[in-house]
Design goal:
CATH superfamily of the largest domain: Hexapeptide repeat proteins
Distance between the termini: 33 Å
Largest sheet: 5 strands, mixed
């Protein structure tokens, strides 16, 4: 669990992990280097063996998908000069990513989303959307559209630790009670 960020200077320009996020120590960040950024919000939960792919796609529009420059010419073993990225990966706050899931490059996962175990995420996931499968598809949304809008306004993950502790019982209550107390809209 990451209460305070403690990554080395080597990663600070392209890796950001929010407070209290846990489980990444059992996961793989594949292709993490300066050409791709990974941002993970606060209070996220990662099951074991999750793989997040960043700068690791093979080019499909060229005569070969093989990493010729890197492996045949051996110009530079790292970074791999032949791989491409579909973009940065951004994972919102309060996201649960199930065991052995894969998140491909260029993906945005919204706040409060859930990725079922064993899923391969190839498309963006909306806030509070539950997805699963290969490739991952919508299972359902956790809440109604109005409730989701309210939760996105509340943004409890940005509260102080003290406020969360003071209101802890409401985190274990009905969503309507939570929204009624904290949504000023």
């Amino acid at each position: 669990m990451f209460k305070k960020k403690h990554w080395t200077d080597k990663y600070k320009n392209y890796l950001s992990i929010g407070d209290y996020t846990y489980g990444l120590d059992r996961s793989s960040l594949i292709g993490l280097d300066i050409s791709s950024k990974l941002k993970i919000g606060k209070f996220c939960s990662f099951g074991p063996e999750v793989k997040i792919f960043l700068n690791s796609d093979h080019p499909t529009n060229l005569p070969s998908t093989f990493p010729l420059k890197t492996l045949l010419l051996q110009k530079s073993p790292w970074p791999n000069q032949d791989v491409i990225s579909k973009g940065d990966v951004s994972i919102g706050s309060d996201v649960w990513v199930g065991a052995r899931s894969m998140i491909m490059s260029g993906i945005n996962i919204g706040h409060g989303a859930i990725v079922a175990a064993g899923s391969i995420v190839t498309k963006d996931v909306d806030p509070y959307e539950m997805v699963g499968g290969v490739p991952a598809k919508t299972i359902k949304f956790r809440f109604t559209k109005k409730q989701i809008q309210a939760m996105l306004r509340i943004q409890w993950w940005n509260w102080s630790d003290n406020k969360i502790k003071e209101e802890i019982s409401l985190f274990y209550s009905d969503i309507s009670k939570f929204i009624k107390k904290f949504d000023d809209y």
